[in-house]
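Lab manual, section 2.4: Encoding a predicted structure.

Procedure: take the sequence of the chain (373 residues), apply the prediction step described in section 2.3, and record the output as structure tokens. A sample record is shown.
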Amino acid sequence: MEIKDYTKKIISALPYWFEIRKHPEKAIGAKFLEVFGIELQEVFDILDYAYKQTRIDTADMDFTNIVYKTVLPYNVNSNNVTCVRSKDTVLAKVDSIGKFFGINSNDLSYPELYENNVYFIDDSKNILYVKHNYDALKSNEAGFIQVLCTDKSYTLPLSIYKVWNFFDEFGLLLDCPRLYGETNAEYKMRILDVFKNPAGSNKEGLMNAIARELNMRKEIIWQDARVDLIIEDPMVNLSSIKIDGIKYNENQVYITDENTVLIPGIDSNKGTQKTVSYVSGIEMHSIHNKSDYKMQNELFNSDNSSTDLLKYYVNLIETSCPIMWDEFRWDEAYFDISDKNVGGLGCIPTLCDGSIEGFAGKTLVKGELDINV
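Recorded output:
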């Protein structure tokens, strides 16, 4: 008889001259103590599992985070549903949420059946839940499910239903909510990205925040760092490239004739593998940058009047961080007209604005503030 670890610990506390200490596998008393050993082992496993969920590196990656649901027709309920199936799979019915998630499956004859192809009907809301996106199509990646009733059959579209789990708790603490349809593995990487690429009000911080919120940071494996790496992504932000978590000098990155990104080999050891991450799909512009012609053409019309886009930006900025009289938020922000770092002049130009021709190149001095016209 195989003795459990906790049973061995109980036996080891007995006097050394007991026969059960010498030959536990043959002792009847060991079989009796095995009952307590099994219970203690289960308690330990539960506590150990709960403790692991307090750390993101040991949290359960397989814990359910997505199921699929569909609203049943008003005249359909669990009593008149005879079968639920996809094109090639017949689903088994469970009568409780616990069995649906595999929590209370010990009393089932075939518990492995209930791990995947099952369905549960919430009669109070008339909603049917399944675990997979059966018969998924491009028109609906969540899939479809067939519901057969006593007198009629229905093919109903499924939709994703997010199940809150331990990773959502971490995301809540860091103000990083899960994206629609995001898996535990993908979500874990975005949560860790909060510390790897912190957000901020500067250009790099804004890029990090946008990339994280929209899941626009990509990661690839550089199989052999001795060989040049070609990135075919057309929207790579060169300043965001990192190799093994260390920022790479964008001046050493090249754009090929095929408009691909080339990173020269950097390691002399053959077969050295590295992880390359970068932000893709983000363009960053400054509204005040007059040399950014692409942005300026979107902000101003040919007669230098403001476009609707510029008005939208101004209204957005005024709503988020107003600086005008009677709208300034004194408990949240400040400005000092004498401080060049926080002061500035700007407005939406109009056709009635006076020309500054003749004043160009001159400097107006007021106190400590120099204003170049």
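Check your result against the sample. The chain has a mean pLDDT of 81.
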